[in-house]
Amino acid sequence: MLKKIFILSAIMFFLVATFFSIYNFAFRDAEKIKLGLENNDKKDIETKIETNRITLVSNKTPISPKIDHEEKKIVFYNKVNGNLENVSFDGSIENTILENNLEKISDVAWSPDKNFVILKIEKKGEQKFYLYSYITRKSIELKEGIDNVIWDNQGDKIIYKHFDQLNGERSINIADPNGKNWKKLVSLNDSFKKIELTQIPQSLFLSFWSYPDANKKTSLNKVNIIDGDFQEIEKDKFGADYLWSPDGRSFIVSSVDKKGSSLKLELSRLDNSTQKNLNMPTLVDKCVWSKDSRYLYCALPAKIPEDSVFPNDYQERKTLTKDTFWRIDTKENENDRIVDLEKLNKDYDATSLFLSPRENILFFINRYDDKLYKITLNNQI
Question: Is the C-alpha dihedral spanning 160, 289, 235, 240 positive or negative?
Answer without folding.
Answer: negative
